[in-house]
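hiii, so i know i said id send this last week but things got crazy w the move. better late than never?? heres the sequnce for the chain we talked about at the cafe, plus the structure i predicted for it. fair warning i was half asleep when i ran it
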Amino acid sequence: MIRTVLMDYDSTIHDMDGVMERSLEGVLGYSGEELYRIWVYDVHRALIHTRYLERHDDAMFHCRLLFDQLRLPFDQKAAEEICAKFDEAKTKAQEDPIYYPDAIPALDSLREMGLNICLSTGFGAEAKAKTLERRTGKRYFTETFSETRLGVWKTEPEYYRKALSILGAKTSETVSVGDTPLSDIRPAKLVGIWTIWVNRNMEEKPSSPDQQPDYETRNLREAARIIKGID
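okay and structure toks below
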C-alpha cells in the first residue's frame, strides 16, 4: 500500500512544455514546438543528462549544444534571447503557473486518500508549493524537496534516499510520479521506490531497463487511480 507520493512539478503538474513552446515560437526560424523538442530531447536529455550533468543548469552551454544540433554557427545574441526566455519560464513556473486540467483533481484524490504528498522537483520547490496553495486555498504538500535542499541532482539515487530519510518513509510504500525517465523514474527505481511515468506526449518507452517505469499513464488522474490500486 502506498503511503507517500513524491510528485514532480514541471510538465507533470505545471504545463512547462506549453509555456516554452509559445515563448520560443519563431526563434531561429523554428516553430516553438520543434525548437523546444530539440532542446529537451536532443540536448538536455540526450547530451546534458548523459555527458555533461555538471552543466545541468548552464543555459548558455545548452544553447551552444543547441546550435550544434541545428548545424548553425553560434549566435551570442540569439543565445542570450533563448536564455532569457528560459529564465522567464522558470519565474512563471513559480509565480504564475499554468496547471494541467487533470492536476488539481488528481491532487484532490490523493489528498482524500490520506496520502503524504511531497513536491519533488529540481528548483523552486517551496515557491511552487506556496503558489499552488495560494491558487487553490489548499495545502497539498507536506514536504517540498529540491536539488538545493537535498544538495544533489534529482537524476541521482541519493536525491531519493535523502528524501526518504527525511520523511522516514519505506521504499515499498512510496511512489515517484513524473514526466522525465532520467530524473523521476531511473533514480527512484534504483532506490526501490515504485514509479509512475506521466507520458503526456506519448514518447517512446526508454530502451534502458533502469528507466522503464512500473506504470505508465498520460495524465495525473489515471496516476491517482493507479496509486490507489498498488498493494
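btw The first helix runs from residue 16 to 23. thought thatd interest u
miss u guys!!
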